[in-house]
Amino acid sequence: FQPKVLQGRKLLITAGPTFEPIDPVRGITNHSSGKMGFAMARAAAEAGAEVTLVAGPVHLPTPRGVRRVNVTTAQQMFDAVLPQAAAHDVFVATAAVADWRPASLSAQKIKKEGDKKATPTFELTENPDILAAVAGLPQPPFCVGFAAESENLLEHARSKLVRKKLPMIVGNLGPATFGKDDNALLVIDAQRHYPLPADGSSADKLTLARQLMADLAQRL
Ligand code: C5P
């Protein structure tokens, strides 16, 4: 039984990877499974919230009671999120958004046996930072960021908190959380940081998501 601690709240959540096409058959993506974001959406709905989940390309069932919007690229995710962000109480950015995309999209498949026979090179251009844009709105929702770092988690996450003007960021303590069912988290705000589960062990993503929703409800 989950207490309805988010009854009457509207949550907007991003999840999964983005896919940035290079040509009609190739693209740049990452190993995000979407599991944490989908667990967050499920836990939020269980806690009584009205939930919109903007999902990158993943094969996961939509949690019960959740409104889902499917997108592919970071720009599409940005376009789906920004217009409705201010109408929400909370924005949770779990998506692993590609930081860069190919500067141009080839209309045809790039062929190996081309005239020049040269290895292709790709110019990249920066994607918009969805979380920073939402946090920078005149009246932003309560914004929760996620951080997956391969080193110096606390330091990197704290600088992200400041740079993106976030009240709260959640760091992945596990070295390789992508695709796994279990995780260990570090919750960081302006004053403190503490592990979830509280005893520093690990837990499945749904358990962690429920704990995060209880934590979040106290901050609103
Ligand atoms: O800067 P970095 O990508 O490490 O920050 C991670 C956090 O920012 C995550 O919450 C992620 O969902 C969000 N993010 C975003 N848009 C981007 C890049 C990251 O919303 N373009």
From TrEMBL:
Residue positions binding CTP: D99, K109, P128, D129, I130, L131, F146, K160, K164
Gene Ontology molecular function: FMN binding; metal ion binding; phosphopantothenate--cysteine ligase activity; phosphopantothenoylcysteine decarboxylase activity
Pathway annotation from the record: Cofactor biosynthesis; coenzyme A biosynthesis; CoA from (R)-pantothenate: step 3/5; Cofactor biosynthesis; coenzyme A biosynthesis; CoA from (R)-pantothenate: step 2/5
Keyword Cell cycle: no
Record-listed E.C. numbers: 4.1.1.36, 6.3.2.5
Coiled-coil ranges (or none): none
Family to which this protein belongs: In the N-terminal section; belongs to the HFCD (homo-oligomeric flavin containing Cys decarboxylase) superfamily.
Listed name of the protein: Coenzyme A biosynthesis bifunctional protein CoaBC
Organism for this UniProt entry: Aquabacterium lacunae
Full-protein interval shown: 187 to 406 of 409
